[in-house]
């Protein structure tokens, strides 16, 4: 396997960072249409998808401190986006559940996300879009393991034979 050219290596990190920052910025702008900050709409999506998640689980999914999630949930609960319910077997644990308001907004937010992603990939044909998604999934998979890149390449080569 040919190694990435130095120029590509130098650009890779900056491009990934810039794409993530620009997507967050676009989502922030569009999320304001619903009166939600970027952190709030990210939590709303997690709450709707997870259904009955604990605050600890939401903190883990969002990769933020539990106290930050708790404060975020406080604000969203006051605004009617989520509610806390007692856990069936552990009274110390509260489950965070979506309200009808958040369920109704979820489809609009999902459609808005689709618009943002479509705009981000404008100019790429379907094959290029699929190749980009596949490549990014591979990057995530590579980084999600404890293996080094050389070990990842060796495992793929062995898997292919």
UniProtKB/TrEMBL annotation:
Name assigned to this protein: DNA-binding MarR family transcriptional regulator
Record's keyword annotation contains Transcription: yes
UniProt xrefs under SUPFAM superfamilies: Winged helix' DNA-binding domain
Lineage: superkingdom: Bacteria
Cited SMART domains: HTH_MARR
Taxonomic source organism: Hoeflea marina
Keywords tagged on the record: DNA-binding, Transcription, Transcription regulation
Gene Ontology MF terms: DNA binding; DNA-binding transcription factor activity
Domain HTH marR-type residues, every copy: 9-141
Cited InterPro entries: HTH_MarR-typ, Tscrpt_reg_MarR-type_CS, WH-like_DNA-bd_sf, WH_DNA-bd_sf
